[in-house]
């Protein structure tokens, strides 16, 4: 089995990628339909939890998802969590300009974050949970996420998924490869595939 990258390896990569993750109109461009996905998830979160006061953005990057959410639910209190200090600095600057609520940052891993239970109306987890590893890690982290929510709160996940059916996995992976090639050619596709292989451990939707 390939040795996966450590949390520190992942942090270092994202420290140097702030500008790419600050593009609100494209989102994370390596994700198919990223702007649409971000729009739909944050709008759905707004509709399902319209009285939300406090949110947590897990793996917030440069703050894109929180900014989209604020367009539908203004002046939220926003807690931003990410491994990367430069990402958090950019997210804090951008989010603070869009809300009168309290904005706090946490430079840590969600697995180790010291956060208040029963505190959040909305949790956002955009393209981050695929960094979890074995079954125990997934179970422990999801248990923690649900414990952070207030009664009636909501958890919104947008992420890469693995497909249980090998034929479907091959179909989707080939389609994804073609999309990446349109963005930056074969070299870009191989670059993305290589860091997915070493960094990510996605699970299926049914999982």
> What is the helix fraction of residues, given as a range?
40-55%
Structural class by sheet pairing and helices = alpha/beta
* Low-confidence regions: none
Strand order of the largest sheet: 3-2-1-4-5
Entry keywords:
single chain, about 210 residues, alpha/beta, 5-stranded parallel sheet, globular
Concise description?
By secondary structure, this protein is of the alpha/beta class. The chain has helices at 7-15, 34-48, 64-72, 85-96, 135-148, 166-199; strands at 54-58, 77-82, 103-107, 120-126, 149-158. It is built from six helices and five strands; from the N terminus they run ααβαβαββαβα.
Task: Describe the protein.
The chain has 207 residues and is α/β, with parallel strands linked by helices. 45% of the residues lie in helices and 16% in strands. The protein has six helices and five strands. The chain has helices spanning 7-15, 34-48, 64-72, 85-96, 135-148, 166-199; strands at residues 54-58, 77-82, 103-107, 120-126, 149-158. Strands 3-2-1-4-5 form a five-stranded parallel β-sheet. β1 (54-58), α3 (64-72) and β2 (77-82) form a beta-alpha-beta unit. The mean pLDDT is 92.
Helix and strand arrangement:
Layout: H1 7-15, H2 34-48, E1 54-58, H3 64-72, E2 77-82, H4 85-96, E3 103-107, E4 120-126, H5 135-148, E5 149-158, H6 166-199
Parallel strand pairs: 1-2, 1-4, 2-3, 4-5
């Amino acid at each position: 089995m390939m040795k996966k990258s450590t949390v520190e390896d992942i942090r270092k990569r994202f420290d140097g990628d702030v500008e790419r993750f600050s593009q609100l109109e494209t989102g994370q461009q390596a994700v198919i339909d990223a702007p649409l996905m971000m729009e739909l998830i944050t709008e759905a979160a707004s509709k399902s939890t319209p009285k939300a006061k406090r949110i947590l953005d897990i793996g917030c990057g440069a703050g894109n998802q929180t900014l989209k959410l604020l367009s539908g639910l203004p002046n939220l209190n926003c807690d931003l969590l990410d491994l990367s200090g430069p990402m958090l600095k950019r997210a804090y600057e951008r989010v603070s300009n869009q809300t009168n609520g309290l904005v706090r940052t946490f430079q840590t891993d969600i697995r180790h974050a010291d956060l208040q239970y029963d505190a959040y109306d909305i949790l956002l987890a955009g393209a981050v949970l695929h960094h979890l590893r074995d079954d125990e890690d997934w179970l422990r982290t999801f248990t923690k996420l649900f414990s952070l929510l207030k009664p009636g709160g909501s958890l919104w996940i947008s992420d890469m998924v693995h497909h249980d059916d090998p034929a479907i996995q091959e179909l989707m992976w080939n389609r994804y490869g073609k999309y990446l090639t349109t963005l930056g050619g074969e070299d870009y596709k191989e670059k993305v595939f290589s860091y997915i292989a070493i960094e990510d451990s996605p699970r299926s939707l049914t999982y």
